[in-house]
Amino acid sequence: MEILDGKQVAENIKKDFEERLNKVKIRPNIAVLGIKGDGASDIYTRKIKKNCEKYRIGFKLILSENVKDFKKNFKEIKDDESITGIMFQQPLDGNVLNLINEIPAQKDIEGIGINNMGKLFLGNEDAQIPCTSKAVIKTIEYYGINLEGKKVAIVGRSSIVGKPLIPQLLKKDATITVCHSKTKNLVKELQTADVVIMAIGKANFLKKEMIKKDAILIDVGINFLDGKIVGDIDYEDVKDYVKAITPVPGGIGIVTNALLIDNIIRSVE
Amino acid sequence: MEILDGKQVAENIKKDFEERLNKVKIRPNIAVLGIKGDGASDIYTRKIKKNCEKYRIGFKLILSENVKDFKKNFKEIKDDESITGIMFQQPLDGNVLNLINEIPAQKDIEGIGINNMGKLFLGNEDAQIPCTSKAVIKTIEYYGINLEGKKVAIVGRSSIVGKPLIPQLLKKDATITVCHSKTKNLVKELQTADVVIMAIGKANFLKKEMIKKDAILIDVGINFLDGKIVGDIDYEDVKDYVKAITPVPGGIGIVTNALLIDNIIRSVE
């Protein structure tokens, strides 16, 4: 069994960051907008801040008191020419979610707006791609996994992982099956898949009897269970049964963090 | 075996066209741009013209001598406020294909530009949707076929059929498998599918031994064989083995034509 080590993939992505940053005309400078009181996403935001500081990327966190305040702050930031990238702290109130599409495409560093999603689906090379989905692809590429004609099952159909993975996997000539909470015969689909990508947010959901022997497993889940971080895959249960697997922590999450910085740099290149 | 009759679906779509057209402030007025000498697409264009005339929708065909001429004509049409919808006659030279994304989203009546595709993938209700893909959905809806949890296999991954079908089928809670020319085990995927949508452009490709009994088949193919129009499905071979099937001609094609008019009206509503 091979462990697909996110740290190695991330290091490989980061290795030319300094060189790229030395070449850009404007130093990237990002703003993260959120609403006060959402503790869970604080951890992620702190991680982004730390990474930005490491690369001397401007970072500003703007926490609003309420939706009205958020809209006002967003309007100011959107028109601020010194800001090169904008992202929203998730999860966001439905009332402000549609503002994502008002982020100018170039500044949409998470690649979650209409423009970037349209570009991604039409195969446009300059699309900013949602980091988590791209982290799956970068991991597959780093480890030289050939997907041509292989069956890849994606479990989960979110706008930031499942859906954006579809065009990226089709480009690699994979046969794709998208499963989700309403899927009947999930096990039947997974047992015929060469690669399974789990992105449903259910701790230790996937067991070895659900997959075929020597499958390659990619775990996008980050769940808290008994004070520990675990993925959507029961790692201990499957580890001796599979060909390769991404661990949690130490897998897709680390690569995702590196790719956000990559997107931030791309936005000024 | 039930025949999913495109004519009935199209009539149902067209039944409120006159009423809707009486309500709009500006009468729709479209321009079709192409390059001279492409005989195959002339048939489709003539059909559109006829349909536009029927509903007193303005129609203008602008055939250019070459790519340079096309670009010049496009620039004029794009800025012409009297034109409410623009489409390109396909297949188009690669040199002009990217101009599709310069069609203002509102005037992109075929729904094939970045903006509409992004909206479609993110579930935005005001997306203009590529007509052929929407014709598949409208046919499924008209005949009350419930896709929740069902396995739907899409064969073909084009930007106008296979790809835009994905979010539309996910919205109906189907489990989706996307197959294409590089797929290994195509038959294995098709034999476990409750619904098979064929969109590869290969005459009579699908035979009954490739599918499961009582599957529902949707045929998007339009192929010319021995002077006759046939689909991607060998109709005679499968007809007594399936639960339902769309004929060719008389199936998805007719619905597609109605939906183009629907999109043209939508663009001014």
List keywords for this structure.
homodimer, 269 residues, alpha/beta, Rossmann fold, 6-stranded parallel sheet, 11 strands, 38% helix, globular
Q: What is the oligomer described by this structure? A: homodimer
Query: What is CATH's topology name of the largest domain in chain A?
Result: Rossmann fold
- SSE succession of chain A: EHHEHEHEHHHEHEHEEEEHEH
Specify the number of helices of chain A.
Answer: 11
* Helicity level of chain A: 25-40%
What features would you describe in this structure?
Two copies of one chain form a homodimer. Chain A is an alpha/beta fold and 269 residues long. The first copy, chain A, has two domains: 80 residues, Rossmann fold; 124 residues, 3-Layer(aba) Sandwich (Rossmann fold), CATH 3.40.50. Helices cover 38% and strands 17% of the residues of chain A. Chain A has eleven helices and eleven strands. Chain A has a six-stranded parallel β-sheet. A three-stranded parallel β-sheet of chain A has the order 3-2-4, with helices on both faces. In chain A, helix 7 packs across helix 11. The relative contact order of chain A is 0.17. The mean pLDDT of chain A is 95. Chains A and B meet through helix 6, helix 8 and strand 6 of A and helix 6, helix 8 and strand 6 of B. Strand 6 of chain A pairs antiparallel with strand 6 of chain B.
